[in-house]
Prior knowledge:
The chain is an all-alpha fold and 84 residues long. The chain has helices at residues 5-43, 51-65, 67-81.
Amino acid sequence: MNTTPEATIADARERIDALDDRIIGLIQERMAVSSVVQQTRIASGGRRVHLAREMEILGRYREALGKPGTSLAMTLLELCRGRI
């Protein structure tokens, strides 16, 4: 069965849309978990942001995705903790 390029593209776009929905859901879940961490840290007398932990996260994304991974991680951190 041969499929047309248009059908292949349409199928791939559907998969991309489904993946994007999952990624957005995971980011929203990460934001909620990050909020719990921040609130708990502040309630126990700590700071809202833990820079050493953020550096670990930046490194993990950079190692997995290259230089653009750092930008992605920075955006993700900003979504989860706000601007610092």
